[in-house]
Amino acid sequence: MSDRITIIGAGAWGSALASLTQINGCEPTIWSRSSNLMLAETVRDRVAIISAVSMSGVRAVIERLQAEIEPHQIIVTATKGLDAQTNCTPAKLWQTAFPNNPIVVLSGPNLSLEIQQGLPAATVVASHHPDASTKIQEIFSSPKFRVYTNDDPIGVEIAGTVKNVIAIAAGTCDGLKLGNNAKSALLTRGLAEIIRIGQYWGGKTETFYGLSGLGDLLTTCNSSLSRNYQVGYGLAQGRTLTEVLDNLAGTAEGINTTKVLIQIANQHQIYIPITVLVDRLLQGQITAPEAIIALMSRDRKSEY
Fold this sequence. Notes:
The protein is of the alpha/beta class. It has two domains: 4-151, Rossmann fold; 154-296, N-(1-d-carboxylethyl)-l-norvaline Dehydrogenase, domain 2. Helix content is 52%, strand content 12%. It has helices at 12-23, 39-43, 55-65, 90-97, 112-116, 130-140, 153-175, 180-201, 211-221, 227-236, 241-246, 253-268, 273-282, 288-296; strands at residues 4-8, 27-31, 48-51, 74-77, 103-107, 121-126, 145-150. Helix 3 links the parallel strand 3 and strand 4. Helix 3 (55-65) runs parallel beside helix 4 (90-97), helix 7 packs antiparallel against helix 8 and helix 12 (253-268) packs across helix 13. The mean pLDDT is 95.
């Protein structure tokens, strides 16, 4: 029998994930707020429940499912962000609500449009439950989508989340036409910033050099398909954040993530200069050229 799964979220990412599971003969049911189906009905008797909603919708979905999920069902979170009220990752929110369920994090260099076009890609599924991550690997793996397992879910999740902030900076860099030297320096130092934040959360350093870290960083920071990249690019052209968002299809999670990271960094003295300047840029406190000058004129220091 084919595996029956539910994908919560009918946006580009949820639709792309659904198409991937169909390759292996799975039967995905997609649910969204505009669906005629009851959410409780769509998760009943499913092997896995995959959450592909935006960060702002995660807690609402969890509340609706509080009494509907069985302990044996695998919960997969494919959301990249941080909760504005609790500072928690999506996996943390799911695990708190469903402590007896195996939670799997799915993250990697995965642009939805390219996946829907059938182009090859790879991703990571991470969990403290090896059997669960192996099952999700089986569900998604295909000749066009290579899936790796990982035992560092927090590292995988933080890598995919924080890279959205660096993508805003990368879009700004390209929007200002600063060249390849500047872009390479930005991404390298951005990765160092991601690792610094990830280590605070308890992630393994090697995770950030893998697909969910460096891989996702390179993809998101170099593609105009990335919404976070588009935000930075638009700000560099002199548009306001409101103007940029009015023309953006979907949610740029890096905007909210930046706010949450600033709070965490201030509380725990984490050095994140790129994120600080992205925050000031998003708030309109500094222009894109001024942000670059501020980055380049910082005190001299050792690389490591």
